[in-house]
Amino acid sequence: MSSIKLDTEFLDTEFQNQAENILDRSRLALSSIQNKNCTGSQWLGWYDYPRSSGYALLEKICAYGDDIKIAYDLIVVIGIGGSYLGCRAVSEALSHQYLAGNSENDLKKIVYIGTSLSDKSIIELLEFLDAKNPIVNVVSKTGETTETAIAFGLIEKYMIGRYGADVAKDRIVVTTDAEKGLLRALAKDRGYRSFEVPNNIGGRFSVLSAVGLLPLFLAGHNIRDLLKGADSLFSSVRSEQSIDGLDHPVLRYACFRNAAYQLGYKLELLAYSQPKMSFFAGWWQQLYAESEGKSGLGLFPIGASYSSDLHSIGQMVQDGPRNMIETFLSFRNNDSKLMVTEVQGFEESFSHFEDRSVDSINSDAMLATKIAHSDGGVPCVEISAESLDAEGLGELFAFFQLSCGISAAMLGVNPYDQPAVESYKTNLFGLLGKKGYESIGASLNARLNK
Ligand code: PA5
User: Fold this and answer.
1) Which domains does the chain have, with CATH numbers?
2) Is 109 considered catalytic here?
3) E strand or H helix at 324, and its extent?
4) Strand, coil or helix: what is 344?
5) What angle in degrees, to the nearest 10, is found between the helix axes of 278-292 and 390-411?
6) Is the pLDDT confidence value at 105 over 80?
7) Which of 84, 183, 326, 425 could staple 269 via S-S, CB 3.0–4.6 A?
8) Ligand 1: which of 78, 83, 174, 421 to mutate, judged by most atoms within 8 Å of the beta carbon?
9) 82 CA distance to ligand 1 middle (Å)
10) Would residue 4 be called left, alpha or beta, if left means φ above 0 and alpha means ψ between -120 and 50 degrees?
11) pLDDT (tens digit, 9 = 90+) per residue, 155-169?
């Protein structure tokens, strides 16, 4: 059974009815995914992935781990978008924010590069690497992404310069398409160990493939639990159950979003009160933005870290244009019981905190926020998982992927392509004069009067 719950108690009757009326459409959308006859059905490899391939991949990754036999204390992930956000979502959520990698027993630290074209980011990382023994995982489905290629070229040169080509070879592992692309050709040429990005899974749906699992395994995360969590979510909607009467949070969340869209809302906030979830929100944001933002359609997705953002964008959420909906993301169990202490001499001012844990006050702050925002005209729902651990995150990945597939089908867009992202990539290739992009370069230069 999946632990994910969706709480809609703060939605008003009009909204509840609007969402209820489209529940059947969401069931149809789910069955089109399960029967593989939805738009973009060639990209459905993520659906039920733990059972179809994930557990087998786990064995391969463990075998690789047994085989490499090199000492390392840092993982460098080179990749952008769907090729790094899922991994970062897990490692930031589950690692100690200050002490990660400080002792033998800790989860190892992962650092990320190739997420921008900033020279400073690369220079500073190279300086940091001198004091470390890194292992490098370069991740690109197409194997052609500019940011990734530039960062990889510089990091590979550093690794070969420092360790020599033979040793560097064991410290570099490639994750890319099985056949196509520059990175695949390079892995073959150099003899690097490699993993595949399945050809039926797009970047933002790939966290549970080698794209996310390999670097997380190298850092010591429990990737079996991640798969187990996702498996439990997929099991809870498996197609042998009758879909006609199915009432599931994955459907209800898609209906909430679709109802909001129909009622004219423009924006969705994903509000979380554990700052460690900020990259999970980044992953969620990419998932929905790249999957649904097409042909002028879709809700603009934005993460909001509370309490911090309540003291910055809170005013706008409460009282700005009434164009947003809000999804709170929470975990029901927290075993840390840090209690508030009174400040000596000011006991009176602290009396309302007596016998309260910091976490219970955090929950009350979220409740207070939900009440305030819904009173202010922001339709709010809450999605919760049992615990902030690998299993909980695995469930959430599967939950949002599936609900996004359903939501996009209800909206009438293909969630699995990203033609608009390709526009900037193509323009950049044209401006750089890349082979094959000469005519694009010529027409851009003409436009720019160059
Ligand atoms: O979701 C997607 O497809 C994109 O965000 C890609 O992951 C991103 O553009 C990186 O592409 P690649 O993995 O080909 O380097």
Assistant:
1) 5-39+246-411 (3.40.50.10490), 49-229 (3.40.50.10490)
2) no
3) strand 324-333
4) coil
5) 20
6) no
7) 326
8) 83
9) 5
10) beta
11) 999 999 999 999 999
